[in-house]
Prior knowledge:
CATH class of the domain at 1-114: Mainly Alpha
Number of helices: 16
Radius of gyration: 19 Å
Mean pLDDT: 91
CATH topology of the domain at 1-114: Serine Threonine Protein Phosphatase 5, Tetratricopeptide repeat
Distance between the termini: 48 Å
Order of helices and strands: HHHHHHHHHHHHHHHH
Strand content: under 5%
Structural class: mainly alpha
Shape: globular
Amino acid sequence: MKAIVYAALTALSVVLVALALFAQTPSSQQEQPEFIKQGQQLMREGKLVDALALYQTQAATLPYPANIAAGGVLDLMGRGEEARKHFQKAIESADMPGEKAMAQRAIAMSYAFEANCKNTVEYEQQVFDYYANAKDVFRQGEIADEAARVCIDLGDLDTAHKWYQLGHDMGLKEPDIKPARVDLWNFRWEHAQARIAARRGNQTEAVSHITAAKVILDKGTNPEQAQFFPYLQGYVAFYGGDYKKALEDFLKANQNDPFIQCMIGQTYEKLGDKNKAIEFYRKAETAISHNPTAAFAVPFSKKRLAALGG
């Protein structure tokens, strides 16, 4: 039971939203420890030092969730080496293989915060293998896509393409897969190929994948994916040099996504509006998640703010 509670509370944590896939029971059936709730509130207030101290005080009594949470805060603070020591302690205190996989995934994200695609992939591979042993191809696909997302944001397009394709192919191997799930994986694959083509300067190919993605989206089988379409259009426009269109599309995307905030900041920079760029970078640097979007956005926005004097 302890392992199940730990997995569920980890899935609930704002600090570790990237680990939600590992929850082993419905979150509504579990209660977060009070210190996790307190830590989350401190982080929302920008008090990362206080949140870290709180989590570290709990490490002796609740080593697994406390070390996972503390590591997440340290990554947000740019202290990756220390963060990974906490994640390693979480591995050592893990009661179940699933908990160990969660901590390995946290290490993968820790390396993402340091813009290290290679090491991110190394640890995501371990999680991928865990799900292979569990015969959970859907989760294998999710993990592969996560690794790909880190690498595309860091400009390693070949590695991103490899892992996006692996995610797509694994996802489609789900037994008795439903048509909506097929559409989901195909939409994600077209979305990924469009972004990779745009980064490689092939606008014609990128637009063809946008068109294919829209055809799938218009089936209505995965309405929750609609929010990712304006992001895709803006992304392709940005890398095609059409910054006015990029801004128009990005402003239709999820404004609470720190990666989108960074893209908007970059677009305003291209359009010569320094003040608006700073505004959006300031939003992005306050992200408190431990996932690919925050792993890119927090360090990137801090660098741009330093460069712009913001």
